[in-house]
Amino acid sequence: MLDIAVQAGPDWSADEDWEAIGTKAVTLALEHSLHADWLTRALCIEVAIRLTDDEEVRSLNAQYRGKDAPTNVLSFPMVQPDLLDSLANTDDGEALLGDIVLAHRVCVREAEEKGISVTDHATHLIVHGTFHLLGYDHQGEAEAEAMEALETQALASIGLADPYNRD
């Protein structure tokens, strides 16, 4: 079971059902990960998603990553990667997987550059952030290719184009 809490700031369109979008994106990432079986367990997986402004993301990025600039998405895992597998042995209970934070203007600008909707881009960024919560990374070339392939597969399963524009 998933428990996705979404908090959308005033810059984010009130016409969108961000709770449903967030839940769909987290589900997609889980379905395409090594932890897909969690979706069939009694285990409650919790993820918090904050859709905020660039200034808040800039502040978080400076504080936690030493980079004084906004970025599109930040992920804050609550479970260490080496402990994720232990959740597979749990049939009940709760696991706070972590937090995902998106910056509004960065997301809008990137969506415009890609020629896609903000909703589709935010979906991709939440999928990307969820993979980080699940222990995936893109520090090395092989890791990046593997993570990007999973993101592309997940998004393709709902009809969204390859976010990395590979032919």
Automatic annotation (TrEMBL):
Keyword list, A-Z: Cytoplasm, Endonuclease, Hydrolase, Metal-binding, Nuclease, Ribosome biogenesis, rRNA processing, Zinc
One MF annotation (Gene Ontology) recorded for this entry: metalloendopeptidase activity
Top-level EC class as recorded in UniProt: hydrolase
Native source organism of the sequence: Sphingobium boeckii
CC per GO annotation: cytoplasm
Superkingdom, taxonomy of origin: Bacteria
The keyword rRNA processing is assigned to this record: yes
Protein name: Endoribonuclease YbeY
NCBIfam families: rRNA maturation RNase YbeY
Gene Ontology BP term (one): rRNA processing
Cofactors: Zn(2+)
EC number: 3.1.-.-
Cofactor note: Binds 1 zinc ion.
The keyword Cytoplasm is annotated on this UniProt entry: yes
InterPro entries referenced in this protein's UniProt entry, alphabetically: MetalPrtase_cat_dom_sf_prd, YbeY
PANTHER family: ENDORIBONUCLEASE YBEY, CHLOROPLASTIC (PTHR46986)
Family statement: Belongs to the endoribonuclease YbeY family.
Binding site for Zn(2+): H128, H132, H138
